[in-house]
Each structure stands twice: as C-alpha cells, then as structure tokens.
C-alpha cells in the first residue's frame, strides 16, 4: 500500500456517492431506517433465538460473539465484552479445531479491550487456519498499528484490501494513509467507503471519519457538513454529536457545543468524550462543572477497566494535564508492553514535560511527529517542549505548524499555543536564531 502503484490501485474507482440510500418515494423511505444500535440488537436477538434451537451451531456462537463486540463499539457499553467472551469460548468448545471464525472473534475482542499482543497472536492463529480470512487480517492490521509496527501494518492492510476491498478494509486503508499524513488518499478511501456503504451504520461511519479528517486539518466547513450528513444516517450517534460539538466550539458557538457534548456523553460516557466536554467547560470559566466531568471520566474509566479494557494510554494526557503526571508517566511506561506508536510517544512526551523532564521528553515528542500524522496537538506538545529547552526557533516553527493545521485544536491548549508563540516572537532577535 505504501508503494505508489499499490496506493493508486487502492483508490481506483473511488466514488463520491452517499451509499446506503433508498429510491425517492419508495416504501422503505416512508420510515426512517433502524439505527445501528437497533440493528445490532436485532441481530443479537435473532442469533440468540437460533442458538436456543440449535445450541451446537458453532458458527452461530462465533457470530454472536462478534455481534457483542460490535454492540460494545456502537453503544459504548463495555458490559457486552464478557458476553462476547462467553459466546466465542462456546464456539471453540463445540468446534475446537479449525475454528477461524471464533479465533478471529477473540482477536477482535482482545483488540477492543486494547490487549494488542493478544489480538495479534489470535489473529495470526485464525490466519493459520484460514489464510483468506479478511476479518482476521483486519484485526492483525489494527494490532500492528497499535503496537507501532507500522511497516508490517501497512502490508497487513494491503493484504486485507486485496482479499476483500469492502467498507472494513478501505476504512483501515484510509486510517493508514491518515497516520502517514497522506490526507487526500485518506479522504478518497473514505469516499469509496461511502460509495460502497450498504447500511446506515456504514454511511454514518464514513461521514464520521470524513468529518474527523476535515476537523483535524482545520476544515470546519467540511467537517460540519460531514457530521450533519452522518447524523442523518444515525441521529443517535454520540461520536457524530461530539464531532459536531468540536466544530461548534471551534466556531465560537459555545452553547451549541455544550448542548451536543451533554447529549453525547449522556448517551455514551466514554472517557475521551467526557474529558473533551470538561475541557470546554473549563475553557469558558465553568471549572466546577468541568471538575464534575473529570470525576465522571475517571468513573467511566473504572467501568472499562472492570470489563477488561486497558485505558491507560487514553487517560495519560488527561492525568498529565488535570491529575497526577507521575501516575500518567507510570501508566504510559507500563502500557508500552501492550501499545506503541505515535499516540503513546506523544503521551509519554507530555507526561515527562509536565514533570520537568524535557530533555527526555524531546525524543518522544519528535517520534510522535515523525510519521507525519496530522495532529496539531503533537506539534504543540513538541513546540512547548522545545521552548522549555530554549530551542526557540524550532519551538516557533512547531507552534506555527500546529496552529496552521488546526487553529482551534483544543479549547484549552490552542490559546496557550498562541500566547507562547507571541512571547517567543517578542524575544527572538531579528535575523538571529536562539
């Protein structure tokens, strides 16, 4: 996929249709389609009913386990994970040999719980049984990405695309391009996902990630339109509501942003969303309410941990900024046994900076931007660390790059980036380097 010819092959035939729609005036258009959460619930009910009648249906048990993993992803409810674990174990108990379906399901469950070494091991086991298992190759790619083994991950994504160029594989291809800073190929792959989408869930997924890609590169108009279209496909999506909230906050529409965050976190109190909500409250001077959201984020993280989900990396930046930087650093250091890559590098850099260990932080901050991932926060963190080390020219360059990429990348940190940039510019000698 990284070669030019392979990348071109990936995006041949990319379309711009919306997919998943019904002809105007059709009977199906008379009623809104069921939401993705409703659909997966119906699928689970159907599989459960069948398995009561045919308890030895090992592919059915594997499908049920996979459906529970998907339900947790859609709804944000981690209590579905133990049910997935039981169903997949039942499939393997009935049919222990050559059961690539259950092995791939277990790999997906491990990845959902952020146990990426186990996800890779189980995906490899499924592929050893069935080398043409596109789902197993997809989980393998996910695990390699999250372990920071990027060259292997690109090959795994390409293998999945070669096997089955569908919504799932093209979405992974888009993310691979995005990680490498190749924004246009990433967008083209998502447009292909949109053109091929056959359900509201697929349509909503594509618009969500098109919106996030636009938002991360400062295109507020494109992001707003993408989230609007995504919410037409799935009006209940917390992720799409949060995306719309980010756009509104960047546009200065604070009340609208807070309303969307309130609804999104009420439906799915995922720690990342709750933290975003809290930081916007803090940025507009409502610190007591922000503190309530931060407490909720910690409680939600505890629930995820109770269901076997590792959230150490996800909470590290939060703890570094709002809690205990020592605990943040310890969590990231421990997580490196199970995670890797640019997001872990960035979290470790920031935790070290908050502890005043900027010389150590610099190596990790540089590693975080080395891939070219379009994240203004990465550039901001690097610029702050360079400024702390007296590397003014480099700091100015990275702070400017962060604000050029996304001028409103964070309600808390974007104003700090502008202030620091102004102070550095004020003391730098004209025509001289510091």
Q: Mind explaining what this structure looks like?
A:
- With 434 residues, the chain is mainly α.
- Helix content is 74%, strand content 0%.
- The chain contains 23 helices and no strands.
- It is globular.
Report a brief summary of the structure.
With 434 residues, this protein is mainly alpha-helical. The protein has helices at residues 4-11, 36-53, 58-75, 80-94, 100-112, 116-129, 134-146, 150-163, 167-179, 183-196, 200-216, 220-233, 238-250, 254-267, 271-283, 287-306, 312-322, 325-335, 342-354, 358-370, 376-388, 392-405, 413-427.
Features:
434 residues
List the helices and strands and how they pair.
Layout: H1 4-11, H2 36-53, H3 58-75, H4 80-94, H5 100-112, H6 116-129, H7 134-146, H8 150-163, H9 167-179, H10 183-196, H11 200-216, H12 220-233, H13 238-250, H14 254-267, H15 271-283, H16 287-306, H17 312-322, H18 325-335, H19 342-354, H20 358-370, H21 376-388, H22 392-405, H23 413-427
Helix pairs in contact: 2-3, 3-4, 3-5, 4-5, 5-6, 5-7, 6-7, 7-8, 7-9, 8-9, 9-10, 10-11, 11-12, 11-13, 12-13, 13-14, 14-15, 15-16, 17-18, 17-19, 18-19, 19-20, 19-21, 20-21, 21-22, 21-23, 22-23
């Amino acid at each position: 996929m990284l070669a030019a010819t392979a990348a071109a092959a990936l995006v041949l035939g990319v379309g711009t249709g919306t997919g998943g729609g019904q002809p105007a005036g059709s009977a199906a258009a008379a009623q809104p389609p069921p939401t993705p959460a409703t659909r997966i619930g119906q699928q689970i009910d159907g599989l459960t009913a069948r398995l009561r009648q045919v308890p030895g249906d090992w592919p059915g048990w594997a499908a049920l386990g996979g459906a529970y993993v998907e339900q947790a992803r859609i709804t944000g409810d981690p209590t579905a994970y133990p049910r997935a674990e039981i169903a997949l174990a039942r499939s393997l108990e009935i049919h222990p040999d050559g059961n690539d379906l259950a092995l791939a399901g277990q790999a997906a469950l491990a990845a959902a719980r952020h146990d990426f070494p186990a996800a890779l091991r189980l995906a490899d086991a499924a592929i050893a049984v069935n080398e043409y298992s596109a789902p197993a190759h997809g989980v393998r790619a996910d695990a390699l990405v999250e372990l920071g083994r990027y060259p292997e991950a690109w090959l795994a994504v390409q293998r999945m695309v070669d096997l089955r160029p569908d919504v799932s594989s093209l979405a992974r291809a888009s993310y691979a391009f995005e990680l490498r800073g190749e924004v246009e190929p990433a967008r083209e792959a998502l447009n292909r996902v949109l053109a091929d989408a056959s359900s509201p869930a697929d349509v909503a997924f594509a618009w969500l990630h098109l919106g996030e890609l636009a938002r991360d590169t400062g295109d507020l108009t494109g992001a707003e339109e993408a989230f609007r279209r995504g919410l037409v496909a799935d009006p209940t999506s917390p992720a799409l509501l949060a995306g719309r909230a980010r756009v509104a906050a960047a546009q200065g529409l604070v009340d609208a942003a807070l309303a969307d965050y309130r609804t999104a976190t009420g439906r799915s109190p995922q720690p990342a969303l709750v933290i975003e909500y809290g930081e916007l409250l803090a940025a507009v001077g409502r610190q007591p309410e922000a503190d309530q959201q931060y407490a909720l984020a910690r409680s939600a993280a505890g629930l995820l941990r109770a269901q076997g989900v590792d959230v150490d990396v996800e909470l590290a930046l939060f703890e570094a900024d709002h809690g205990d930087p020592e605990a943040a650093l310890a969590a990231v250091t421990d997580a490196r046994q199970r995670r890797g890559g640019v997001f872990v590098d960035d979290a470790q850099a920031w935790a070290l900076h908050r502890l005043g260990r900027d010389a150590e932080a610099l190596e990790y901050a540089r590693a975080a931007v080395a891939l070219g991932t379009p994240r203004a926060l990465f550039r901001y963190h690097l610029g702050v660390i360079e400024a702390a080390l007296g590397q003014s020219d480099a700091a100015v360059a990275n702070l400017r790059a962060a604000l050029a990429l996304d001028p409103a990348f964070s309600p808390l940190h974007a104003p700090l980036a502008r202030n620091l940039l102004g102070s550095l510019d004020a003391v730098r000698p004209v025509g001289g380097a510091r």
